[in-house]
């Protein structure tokens, strides 16, 4: 008998286990094979996880194969395989409920050795090593015993589905915002149908958590099918046992090794009580029931109004605060009722009335709650006042629990560079509001994800100055720094435009395609390493406008066009087609602009440069074509009809002013909705963090002269980045 074979599996099953392991090995090798296309790798990864979800018993074989591959990668120094193997292994462990303790320990030791690798491998390995420690019951009663806390699964379901409980209050919410410039009516409806699925009822989710946790902890002493039937027979009464299991798991995590025996004993008592309450005979041993990890609850929006993102964050914060206050008041009322009941006589009849009233108030108490919300008619200052009032609440002897940053809002953007440009503007606005009143970010941890989608084919034409492919420059950069992101997310974005045609060919009564929501769930749960894109502030001076210049931000591109440029380029295009060029065209290179920019030397000293350039268009890109060069500079191209007049510079700060009595047009992030006309000058610099600006401005009030970093500003990040989560990330 293999030393890792679980005790209830007979040795005759070894041949079947070997066949499954061989199949899993072939699937892993297909994913890691360099020749495989990115799209195929993503599909193979999804297919592999679906196999385990459908047949949970295969998870042990898959974990064993993945650990062997990681150990081989460690020996041969194949770092390009570490990220796919780490994320795949962790995802299987979350879903599995029966992994032998010695295999758990082997995974833990493997992760521990990976800590010697450079970033980002050691960071990801450390996070997953902590997860394994939480899931593992140590010391194990026997190396071959299959027993775990089930904490990863339980916490994931509670947070993602907002299941109310007293012991693990963390909540998560997923908001998907699709750019209407990319998502037409049919495509928007098709994506929404695949993402916004009917969520299981709270009691069903509670039964699933109970089933998974009891099977993970008791394993051989738990009969899966009988427990499943008993939980269904209990109906809403299952809430009591759900609360007990959540408490047992959280206390087990808190107590560590010292509470192992007590934890398993409590699970055994809960298991016996459930079967007894459902009139089922306690039976040990039997097959395990499947408990697939449900997809998170997703809210899908066609992002027509930029304020909608802010409104949803405020609603989420209000909902959290309302739930916590209701929970606090409910506990106070229960204590008050119990005190009053203790003073009543047993035969007065009032005690029963009070208990009935309590039952009516607590009917299905783990139901996901929704607080009243608003949709944008309220003024921003009124919204902030409402949030502050709900967070602080009326005076009470019991303070609200300190769960700062414990809740998570996951923002998923769907579109091209244009949607991230709009997000950058909103993100800067949120940080500006929070710098003055730290409310939302004190309660909610904001995580940003990006699924690149374009509705037009990429055109690589040398004559085109505004290629459609440029609208995916941010996605291309993310794919270069993170091949696993390219395999799973960029390939998904390429498939999304086909959904509208796929759904129209099927009947409306057909079941939704779970591929999109499954890949998104995988991205949300494993993509936790950010890539920080520098935001750039631009001051735009418009002709005829008095007062301060217009302030805006961009994240990828700024394009400046002059009225004469279109005519010049059209003439040039015609001359190229006829293979002749007139002296007039050769002598006309555009308009003259004055340029002042800072040139950063190797010693990090800025040298201000000034020059005049004749150009017919300016293209400024914040995305480097080479991922090794970083994201801390701008590439500025001055186009001209004469190739000898074309100029390129690299800088962080630049000011461009037209010298002639003319104006030009500025477009941010390739988005025609963010276009400025009649522009006389622009000034670009890295966008400062509003919190940093607030600290420096407050210090400057007490000192005369130049602002200097002091107090908290010395420890704050000066430049505001836009963090986009990937599987690998980049050090910032």
TrEMBL record:
One GO MF term attached to the UniProt entry: 1-phosphatidylinositol-3-kinase regulator activity
Organism domain of life: Eukaryota
Disordered: annotated segments: 354-375
Residue spans of biased composition, Basic and acidic residues class: 354-363
BP-aspect Gene Ontology terms: G protein-coupled receptor signaling pathway
InterPro entries: PIK3R5/6
A Gene Ontology term for the protein's cellular component: phosphatidylinositol 3-kinase complex, class IB
Protein name: Phosphoinositide-3-kinase, regulatory subunit 6b
């Amino acid at each position: 008998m293999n030393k890792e074979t679980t005790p209830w599996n007979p040795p005759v099953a070894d041949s079947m286990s070997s066949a499954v392991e061989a199949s899993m090995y072939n699937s892993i090798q297909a994913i890691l094979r360099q020749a495989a296309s990115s799209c195929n790798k993503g599909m193979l990864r999804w297919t592999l996880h679906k196999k385990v979800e459908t047949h949970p018993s295969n998870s042990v074989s898959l974990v064993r194969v993945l650990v062997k591959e990681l150990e081989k990668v460690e020996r041969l120094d194949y770092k390009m395989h570490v990220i796919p193997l780490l994320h795949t292994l962790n995802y299987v462990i979350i879903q599995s409920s029966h992994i032998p303790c010695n295999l758990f320990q082997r995974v833990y030791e493997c992760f521990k050795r990976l800590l010697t690798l450079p970033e980002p491998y050691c960071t990801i390995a450390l996070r997953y090593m902590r997860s394994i420690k939480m899931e593992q019951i140590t010391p194990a009663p026997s190396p071959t015993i299959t027993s775990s806390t089930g904490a990863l699964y339980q916490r994931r379901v509670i947070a993602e589905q907002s299941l109310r409980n007293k012991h693990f209050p963390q909540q998560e919410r997923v908001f998907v915002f699709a750019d209407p410039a990319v998502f037409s009516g049919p495509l928007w409806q098709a994506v929404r149908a695949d993402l916004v699925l009917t969520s299981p009822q709270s009691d069903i989710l509670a039964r699933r958590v109970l089933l998974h946790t009891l099977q993970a902890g008791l394993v051989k002493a738990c009969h899966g099918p009988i427990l499943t039937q008993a939980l269904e027979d209990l109906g809403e009464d299952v809430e009591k046992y759900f609360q007990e299991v959540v408490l047992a798991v959280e206390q087990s995590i808190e107590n560590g090794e010292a509470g192992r025996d007590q934890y398993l004993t409590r699970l055994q008592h809960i298991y016996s009580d459930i079967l007894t309450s459902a009139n089922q005979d306690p039976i040990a041993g039997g097959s395990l029931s499947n408990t697939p990890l449900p997809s998170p609850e997703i809210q899908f929006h066609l992002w027509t109004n930029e304020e909608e993102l802010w409104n949803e964050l405020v609603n989420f914060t209000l909902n959290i605060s309302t739930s916590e206050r209701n929970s606090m008041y409910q506990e106070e009322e229960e204590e008050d009722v119990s005190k009053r009941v203790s003073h009543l006589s047993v035969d007065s009849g009032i005690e029963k009335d009070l208990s009935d009233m309590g039952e009516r108030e607590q009917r299905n108490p783990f139901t996901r709650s929704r607080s009243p919300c608003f949709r944008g008619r309220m003024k921003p200052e009124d919204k902030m006042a409402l949030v502050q009032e709900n967070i602080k609440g009326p005076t009470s002897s019991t303070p609200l629990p300190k769960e700062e940053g414990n809740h998570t809002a996951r923002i998923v953007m769907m579109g091209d560079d244009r949607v991230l440009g709009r997000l950058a503007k909103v993100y800067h606005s949120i940080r500006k509001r929070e710098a003055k009143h730290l409310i939302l970010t004190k309660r909610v941890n904001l995580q940003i994800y990006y699924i690149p989608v374009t509705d037009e084919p990429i055109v690589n034409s040398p004559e085109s100055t505004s290629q459609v492919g440029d609208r995916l420059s941010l996605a291309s950069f993310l794919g270069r720094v993170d091949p696993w992101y390219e395999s799973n997310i960029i390939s998904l974005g390429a498939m999304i435009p086909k959904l509208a045609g796929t759904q129209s060919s099927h009947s409306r009564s057909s079941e939704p395609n779970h591929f999109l929501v499954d890949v998104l769930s995988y991205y949300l749960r494993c993509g936790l390493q950010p890539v920080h894109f520098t935001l750039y502030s631009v001051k735009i001076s418009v002709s005829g406008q008095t007062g301060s210049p217009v302030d805006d931000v961009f994240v990828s591109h700024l394009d400046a066009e002059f009225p004469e440029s279109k005519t010049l380029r059209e003439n040039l295009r015609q001359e190229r087609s006829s293979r002749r060029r007139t002296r007039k065209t050769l002598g006309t290179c555009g308009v003259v602009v004055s340029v002042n920019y800072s040139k950063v030397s190797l010693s990090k000293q800025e040298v201000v440069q000034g020059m005049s350039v004749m150009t017919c268009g300016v293209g400024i890109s914040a995305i480097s074509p080479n991922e090794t060069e970083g994201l801390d500079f701008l590439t500025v191209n001055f186009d001209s009809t004469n190739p000898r007049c074309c100029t390129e510079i690299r800088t962080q700060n630049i000011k461009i002013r037209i010298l002639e009595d003319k104006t030009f047009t500025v477009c941010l992030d390739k988005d025609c909705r963010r276009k400025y006309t009649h522009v006389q000058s622009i000034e670009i610099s890295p966008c400062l963090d509003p919190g940093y600006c607030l600290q420096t401005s407050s210090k400057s009030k007490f000192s005369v002269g130049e602002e200097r970093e002091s107090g908290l500003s010395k420890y704050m990040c000066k430049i505001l980045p836009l963090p986009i989560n990937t599987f690998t990330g980049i050090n910032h």
